[in-house]
Write a structure and sequence with these properties.
single chain; about 450 residues; alpha/beta; 6-stranded mixed β-sheet; 5-stranded mixed β-sheet; 18 helices; about 25% strand; binds adenosine-5'-triphosphate; binds magnesium ion
Length: about 450
């Protein structure tokens, strides 16, 4: 027979076990259910603005996807005492610190010396690491230099995270229950190490409950308008769900990250928020999860068993390029005409020269004529045409740089759109392609 007092004791034990298990989370500076992390970005060139800090962006986003939130980031010079002071400062509040930069073999790379000093651990030559570096450099000429030998010298207490994309290793160091991970600066190596080594390791080291991510992909609506449309939802999100806005060339990806201990419950909780947000943004949503805009266009065309042709002037083939990055695009994409010169618009697309003279190449009439022309030429169900002024020359008071006319055409109808947008030639071309694909999407889906 179990007495009341026994039950009480068992319950007490349970609570104690729970606290032990979640100790690291209870200590979080923000009391969030997500685990806190701090970043140290090392590099003079990042401070001077010569290099844009893409490492912090990649690390931040990937940590968040795994339930870790970067609460503080400090960017510093490649300076020994500065590195030591910053580690010391951040380790007071954070159990997890990631560092990038300064792990290379040259004189300006001092991170390994700083780690050795801070962790009071002598620098030693790591034979296994040297073998790994030799293997990596097997086919490279000239052969191993004294610099590469230098890279096999690490603090004795550090655990090596093998870098398969470069010679600077990742390093993991511990101080009581705190973890510090140092990565090289090269962004491509940071990505490889994060995915292959760091994230699996962190998930083991700090076992959080289930983490689920969900992407909602929008186009043709600015971040600020999204924010105002879903403000009430966002303000009332539960503590275990985070929403991130990820803008990219005319698109905004909304990413929801949820943490919980019951995967099924978590899934349905997340799904209900995805549905709620979707209902507010309806016509702007082209897809979910990993589906990019050109892939969404491909899906829509396949559903209708329809084909597509493109006529591009100012985008110079960029729209066609985007479409053909999608595997299997040959099922629906027939081809494109890059009709840069007016004579090509006339000779290949059948645009009337009189129209060109009357309205100019960048006009609604010409965009429509190009779209209809290429659809006739290639005998497709749908077409898209773009004509505009990408800059930096060619603008006028009436048609400034960044003026774009788009037209999308089907057997039933042809629609056109006028946009003025200028962020410099290269960005204009990228944005114009997104605007064009969005107009085409709207025509195929029947969105007015
Ligand atoms: P390496 O072996 O190449 O010397 P490293 O660990 O010493 O690696 P750094 O010398 O600091 O790294 O940087 C290497 C390259 O990575 C440089 O081209 C630098 O501009 C770039 N880089 C460094 N930090 C960042 C960052 N935070 N974001 C983007 N690029 C970065
Ligand atoms: Mg370097």
């Amino acid at each position: 027979v179990i007495k009341e007092s026994h039950l009480f004791f068992i319950k007490l034990l349970g609570i104690f076990a729970y606290i032990l298990k979640n100790f690291h989370r209870l200590k979080n500076t923000t009391n969030s259910i997500f685990m806190d992390a701090a970043l140290i970005i090392i590099g003079n060139e990042v401070l001077s603005g010569e290099t844009i800090d893409t490492n912090a962006q990649f690390i931040g986003l990937n940590l968040l996807e795994n339930g870790f939130v970067v609460r503080k980031k400090i960017t510093i010079t490649d300076n020994l005492s500065e590195i030591i002071r910053t580690i010391d400062y951040l380790l007071v509040d954070f159990d997890l610190i990631l560092i990038t930069g300064g792990l290379g073999p040259t004189n300006d790379d001092v991170t390994r010396y700083a780690l050795s000093e801070y962790f009071n651990s002598p620098l030693v030559f790591d034979v296994d690491l040297f073998e790994h570096i030799k293997e990596l450099l097997k086919y490279r000429k000239p052969n191993l230099s004294v610099f590469n030998e230098q890279q096999a010298i690490i603090p004795e207490c550090a655990v090596v995270l093998n870098n398969n994309l470069g010679t600077a290793p990742g390093l993991l160091l511990r101080k009581s229950n705190k973890v510090l991970i140092a990565l090289p600066g090269v962004p491509y190596e940071v990505k490889g190490l994060m995915i292959e080594q760091v994230l699996p390791l962190l998930n083991k080291e700090f076992p959080l409950e289930t983490v689920i991510n969900y992407n909602i992909r929008t186009v043709g609506i600015p971040e600020s308008l999204i924010a105002s449309k879903i403000k009430d939802i966002e303000d009332n999100l539960p503590e275990n769900i985070q929403l991130a806005y990820l803008p990219h060339i005319g698109q905004v990806k909304l990413r929801l990250t949820a943490i919980g201990n019951n995967p099924a419950e978590l899934n349905s909780e997340l799904t209900s928020y995805v549905q709620l947000i979707s209902s507010r943004l309806m016509e702007y949503i082209y897809g979910y999860q990993q589906e990019e805009l050109p892939a969404a266009i491909g899906r829509l065309l396949r559903e209708k068993n329809a084909t597509l042709a493109i006529a591009e002037s100012c985008t110079g083939g960029h729209i066609s390029h985007q479409l053909t990055t999608i595997p299997g695009s040959s099922f629906y994409f027939k081809g494109s005409v890059v009709s840069y010169a007016n004579e090509v618009k006339c000779s290949l697309l059948g645009v009337d020269n009189k129209l060109l003279e009357k309205f100019g190449a960048v006009s609604e009439e010409i965009a429509m004529a190009m779209a209809k022309g290429v659809r006739n030429l290639m005998k497709t169900d749908y077409s898209l045409a773009a004509t505009g002024i990408a800059g930096p020359d060619g603008g006028s008071a009436e048609k400034p740089i960044g003026t774009l006319w788009l037209a999308a055409s089907s057997n039933d109808k042809t629609i056109a759109k006028h946009i003025v947008f200028d962020r410099g030639r290269l960005q204009n071309i990228q944005f114009f392609a997104t605007f064009g694909l969005d107009l085409l999407r709207r025509l195929i889906m029947g969105i007015e």
